[in-house]
Each structure stands twice: as structure tokens, then as C-alpha cells.
Amino acid sequence: MDSAAPPPPYPPSDLTVPTRLRERASYDRAVVHGILDDGYVCHLGFVRDGRPVVLPTLYARSGERLYVHGSTGSRPLRGASAGLAVCLTVTHVDGLVLARSAFHHSLNYRSVVVHGTARQVTDPAEKSAALDAIVEQVVPGRAADSRRANSRELAATAVLRLDLAEVSAKIRTGGPSDEPEDAALPYWTGVVPVTRGHGQPLPADDLDPAVALPGYLTADRPAPGAPHGAA
Amino acid sequence: MDSAAPPPPYPPSDLTVPTRLRERASYDRAVVHGILDDGYVCHLGFVRDGRPVVLPTLYARSGERLYVHGSTGSRPLRGASAGLAVCLTVTHVDGLVLARSAFHHSLNYRSVVVHGTARQVTDPAEKSAALDAIVEQVVPGRAADSRRANSRELAATAVLRLDLAEVSAKIRTGGPSDEPEDAALPYWTGVVPVTRGHGQPLPADDLDPAVALPGYLTADRPAPGAPHGAA
């Protein structure tokens, strides 16, 4: 019997409370973790010379920490040794919501927005574990089935850590919500599910035919962005 | 015979020339347009109180203009009447690139990053056309098959315009590129395609059974994020 209390939600802040559609917001840790664990590409925003920059990049979650990586030569990572103010956003689109009125068209989606200060990971053990976590976030089972980074490769790679503290999720599910007076309009209305999955793995030209497709690529693994437990 | 010269590429700028992997960058208008036309969700970045904010939102492309919309009560749109510095990024993930070394793992992807100043659209005709374009970007054929926004709905909706001027695309395709000395390592290597599509449309509970599924939802239309011409 597990009598431990669930972890407390993330405390809302000026940055994480939306000005509208507040009923779609969640600060629940399990909800936030689930959305983050369903993806591996985030959009990382930062400010350079006073202007916003948004770049897609891989991430991994490890407990209450997120890691992103990049070349030590990349601009955001060069500036992060002293701490870089970032906004990291992960979005999954689950369905197209077609109402009878154009105004009530919408998407079903799950997103997480994380605000905070990203810092370069300097501890070699944490850095190595973070790189493993990023590979595992994309293909669970892969980190142990590839050659780990050597010291030259580790030196060329920068890893940023962002703690999960100022965090919110936003979720829309369900069908369209039309105005009552539109109910008799002759337009089809409903939801078109958006699906995501993996095609058949394509071996590299120089793959030794004796190397079999590993089990973690043949198993019925969840598709990226698919809700947990979905077909 | 079409003797017109192709349109010139977007001029590279300090903001759009990457510091690394420049061979993946493109400023070609057809390439940029193709990537934008394959999606409908962007990540819009702006600066609020000196900090970056990145929010997912719908967009549409119309020629050399992008449109995004939102409630007139939302924070970024409230601030945009005088012009809001933004970075708008669209990303499609096409494949997981599994090299023998963890270091050379990568993604096949196509992304576009647009820098510029977003301004509120005040002309009623342009605003109405932009809202149609956003519906059409998500489901081609839908704008004419739904009730257009009335004056109250138009007043509650803000539309921002962002001209395509400071723009770059970034693309990775193809297989892994391992170090020659890793060629004999016993790890599977290749690409796992990432697929995206639509499930069977789910009618709303109150849909009149006499309303048939429209052709634009039954046709073999391209999936969001799928490269043009892909299966």
C-alpha cells in the first residue's frame, strides 16, 4: 500500500497563469511529466540582443530536471555558462476540432511551457548521464546499444540544465463547442484525430546484414506525441 | 514556356545565418514556402519584461505574409498594435537517425525560422481573409463549409501579420554519418521514419446524421508535416 501523498503541484506564477482559458491550465506534476515524456523535440526560446529567438532542439526529462544539448559553438549555449533565461515549450497536437462556426474551430492539444534559467552542466558524470537521457528520450533502449561519447566528443558537446519550477501545462480535449443557435447549420462537425507513428526502420547502406534489428525498434513502442495508453 | 526568373532567395542576415552546420541552411523561397505549407502549428516567441516566452499557435501563409491569430485579450496580441518583435518557428520531424555512436545520433527534420515585427491587422477585409486562410491551412476546403465569423466574433479576435523577409530554413535528410573507425561496431544503424496522419473523423454527438462527411475529409489529403509528394 502506498500511503505517500502525491507531490504538490507546481506553484502558479505571473509567468505561468494564462490571462484567458484558465480552465485549460494544469500545474499537476504527473500531467506535466506525462506531456514531457511523450515527446523529445522542444522549442527553446531565449533573448539575443533584445530580440526573441526560438529554435527546435532535443530534450530529455530526468526527474525535475530537463536537459538540452548542442554544440559548444552554438550561440545560445555559449552564453549559458552564466545562466540563460529561457522558455522551453513542448506541444503535441492530438486532433482537429471542426465546429460549425469558423470562430469555434480549435485544436485538441497538450503543451507544457517551462520558464527558467538554463545553466551549463559542468559535472562530467551529470553531463554523460544527460546525454544518455537524451538518446533514451528519443529511442528507449538505444543508449546502451550504441558507442558512448568519447572525451573529444564530450568536450564538443554542451549540455544545459533547466529545473522544473515555473511550469504549466495546457490541454484541450473533446469535441467542438458551437453556439446553440448554430446547431441546425448544415455543416459537418466533429474531431479529426491527428496520429503520429513510426515507419519501417531503414538500415544504413553500410550496415552489416548480420546485425539484426534490435528489439527496441521492433516492439510496439509508443509513437512520439501519442498520449500514454493510446493505440 | 515560362521564361520568368525564379524569385530571389531571402537575403541572409546576422539573425538567419547559423554559426554552425551552415550546409543545412536554405534561403530558397520555394523551400521555405513548402515547409510552411506542410504545417499549421508554429511556436511564436516574443519578449515580455525582458524574458523570452514561446507559445504554440496556429498560423497561415499567404504569399510572403504569415498570419497568426488569438484572443484580443491575450498578452502578446495586446502588445502588438505598435509592433511586436517575434521569432516564429515551424518544425517537422521526419526521421530518427540512429548512428553507431551516440554522438552522431540526429534527427531528419525541416524547420523554418522567421524573425520580424508582427503587427495587428486592422483592415477588415485583410483580417477576414487571414482568418479564412488559417482555417484553410489546417483543413483545406473547410473555410467555405463553415459559418464565417460575425462582427462580434471578429471584434474578439486579433490577427497579427508577419512579413517573410528575415527567414531561413534548415533541413537534414539522409542516413547516419558515423566515424570511419566505428564502421565495424555491432550496433544497428539507419533511420526510423516518423509518420504523421489523420484518423477516422469522429462526428460530434449532436451532428445531424443527414450531414455527410465532406469530401475534403475523405480525400487522400496530405498529412500535416508530411513532405509534399510523400506517401
TrEMBL record, chains A, B:
SUPFAM superfamilies per record: FMN-binding split barrel
Pfam families: Pyridox_ox_2 (PF12900)
Name under which the protein is recorded: Pyridoxamine 5'-phosphate oxidase family protein
Annotated source species: Actinacidiphila polyblastidii
Lineage of source species: Bacteria, Bacillati, Actinomycetota, Actinomycetes, Kitasatosporales
